[in-house]
Design goal:
Helices cover about 35% and strands about 15% of the residues. By secondary structure, the chain is an alpha/beta fold. It has two domains: about 200 residues, 2-enoyl-CoA Hydratase, Chain A, domain 1 (Alpha-Beta Complex); about 45 residues, Lyase 2-enoyl-coa Hydratase, Chain  A, domain 2. The strands form two sheets. A six-stranded mixed beta sheet has the order 1-2-3-5-7-10, with helices on both faces. It has a four-stranded mixed beta sheet with strand order 4-6-8-9. Helix 1 links the parallel strand 2 and strand 3.
């Protein structure tokens, strides 16, 4: 697929996906949704990619859905007969990676404005950093819409009173990068000019670890969040058992004993 609304680059086992509609503050159009879905699938299926970095071009990370592209009838965009596919019954994901089904970790680098559906990347990404001028807000109620899945997710990542304030004040309440960091919404604040380089540096540090162990650990945490503790522990142990049958699980201890860097084969 040829991309017009995003950029896709692979280097050093890192796939960097950049929202590329800077003139629209990287607002999410239907074309962008299709292209992102292809890019996420491409990265997940590429054996040469171990980690993803997602960021935006220009002064905004993502300003949410493109209101100029919202269907007048309010229906979810569909192919063929309406409601004939499972995804049409699901909550729309828009720019969100398929975080529930993919194994590879995602580093999110928020540059500037992050609004509405843009915050989905923060709540579903695995490691999120932000530029020092980043700001987070949800404008839904200010334009007559319900802050749906976006704020439901945010309310699980922030204290409920903070999330509710954001949700009900709409575009009149913005969370600064510093405040987001203090609340644990992002893990690091970086000067704007260093943001992408730092995101890639973090991805490279992740990639120094055993890739299958990283994926199993990520899945254990992601899949276990909604389970009772004991069931989550048992699921995590099932992932551990699977990785024990790989060559990398032998290489790690051997490299440690031989005082050398491990050579991961991802198998």
């Amino acid at each position: 697929m040829t991309y017009e609304t995003i950029r896709y680059e692979v280097a050093d086992r890192i796939a960097t996906i950049t929202f590329n509609r800077p003139d629209r503050l990287n607002a999410i159009s239907q074309q962008m949704i299709v292209e992102l879905d292809d890019a996420y699938t491409r990265a997940e299926n590429d054996d040469d990619v171990w980690t993803l970095v997602v960021t935006g071009a220009g002064r905004a990370f993502c300003s949410g859905a493109d209101v100029e592209k919202v269907p007048a009838d309010g229906k979810v965009p569909h192919e063929g007969r309406y409601l004939s596919q499972y995804k049409e019954w699901e909550a729309p994901q828009e720019a969100t990676p398929p975080f529930r089904s993919m194994a590879k970790p995602i580093v999110v680098a928020v540059n500037g404005i992050c609004a509405g559906a843009g915050m989905d990347l923060v709540t579903t990404g695995d490691i999120t950093i932000a530029s020092d001028d980043a700001q987070f807000f949800d404008p839904h109620v200010s334009i007559g819409l319900v802050g749906g899945r976006e704020m439901v997710r945010v309310a699980r990542a922030l204290p409920i009173n903070v999330a509710m304030r954001m949700a009900l004040l709409g575009r009149h309440e913005r969370l600064s990068a510093q405040r987001a960091y203090e609340l644990g919404f992002v893990t690091e604040i970086v000067p704007r000019e260093s943001l992408v380089a730092r995101a890639r540096e973090i991805a490279q540090l992740v990639n120094r670890n055993a890739p299958l162990a990283v994926r199993g650990t990520r899945l254990a945490i992601r899949k276990g969040i909604g389970l009772p503790l004991h069931e989550a522990e048992m699921l995590a142990e099932a992932f551990r058992e699977r990785v024990l049958h790989t060559e990398d699980s032998l290489e790690g201890p051997q490299a440690f004993l031989e005082k050398r860097d491990p050579e991961w084969k991802c198998q």
